[in-house]
């Protein structure tokens, strides 16, 4: 035998073995996470290694506060990418998502109120979120923890609620006179069940969240499924399906498929000023280099498989404006600049949507109920038909003359857990949800439902 040939083959086999062992080791990243973040070797190691901390703009306070003044400047970027990144790619396509098939004989017509609950991203590590820094109070007011969200889901399920897609509730139809109008659809739901819509604002993974106890991004694991990536309080990488609102709901629906009608999950209402879904797909008007643009294009390509998997598994998208701007006091010129950036940098990735969710609950032109001002008309011209604010009930109204639906959403969060127990009893009891062991002691008032005002014990 030619010894040179023999040793060449042997070296190749050794190299292959080393590569195989390296891949196996990478799949175990995140196993040192806390007990609430169950890691898995199924998660993509290449995704876990890409934390995407680098953003082109700094986050400001609040759940989705507007960034610098550059957030309202127009950008000519199309959001298209040319170079694929391995950060979120996977050789597996994921299991096919098949909606639960109800027996038709168990369904009935429903024309009643469709409740609408909205959340922000979940607090995964309360010890990082409620540490007394400048962000702690805002996080307490506007977010719920992973443990609280888990209990809210259990309560909604026990009380007979069922997830529906907003787009199944209303449709745009001909008005018979050559125009269009919105129509409330009759739903077919299981007898005795109560439909509700779930939306999530600011699921962008802002920079301030990364150091305050939230997950960093969504990734696709080697199993083709969605996972979250982040760092625990000790700095250990954690890849999990138990720390992020998207993956938690995915798991809940998988365990209780009858909790979802026609496969509905929730609507992700996205801004764009710090990218989307943990990927820095945004531009910056203050300074921009070729290197920054190339990195942005890589991020655009990296997030595309995430968007595709979300859409394939019952999630859908809405706009929260690009810069989280208050539409109540912004003129058409500023809103046009902002929404041009949203369409270029977000809409170009997630696709078309008719759903607009007002930042801060601010209604365009100061009022979209009694009037339709220039900002509302401009947003309508972009194709938006469903407009949502925030309120004390799941209000909705068809504006026939404007071919639009306006509505309010309820907001389970620290504020309402502390001070609005009665209003949410049809969904859950705040006494059973509120986690006093991790939240700051800002007091509470659970009123007539059985508890007096007080402080945490």
In words, what does this structure look like?
Strands 2, 3, 7, 11 and 12 form a 5-stranded parallel beta sheet that branches. The protein has 13 helices and 16 strands. Helix 5 runs parallel beside helix 8 (245-255) and helix 10 packs parallel to helix 11. The chain has helices at residues 3-26, 45-48, 126-129, 136-142, 146-158, 166-169, 207-210, 245-255, 290-312, 332-350, 374-381, 414-419, 430-433, and strands at residues 107-110, 115-119, 161-163, 170-174, 180-184, 187-190, 194-201, 217-220, 226-231, 237-240, 267-270, 316-319, 355-357, 386-390, 396-399, 404-409. Residues 1-91 have low confidence and may be disordered. It starts with a helix and ends in a 24-residue tail after the last helix. It is of the alpha/beta class and 457 residues long.
Mean pLDDT: 83
Low-confidence stretches: 1-91
Number of strands: 16
> How would you describe the shape?
globular
Q: What structural class is derived from the secondary structure elements?
A: alpha/beta
Instruction: Please work out how many helical segments DSSP would assign.
Output: 13
Work out the strand percent.
Answer: 15-25%
Describe the structure concisely for a colleague.
The chain is of the alpha/beta class and 457 residues long.
Topology:
Layout: H1 3-26, H2 45-48, E1 107-110, E2 115-119, H3 126-129, H4 136-142, H5 146-158, E3 161-163, H6 166-169, E4 170-174, E5 180-184, E6 187-190, E7 194-201, H7 207-210, E8 217-220, E9 226-231, E10 237-240, H8 245-255, E11 267-270, H9 290-312, E12 316-319, H10 332-350, E13 355-357, H11 374-381, E14 386-390, E15 396-399, E16 404-409, H12 414-419, H13 430-433
Parallel strand pairs: 2-7, 3-7, 7-11, 11-12, 13-14, 14-16
Antiparallel strand pairs: 1-6, 4-5, 8-9, 9-10, 15-16
Helix pairs in contact: 5-8, 10-11
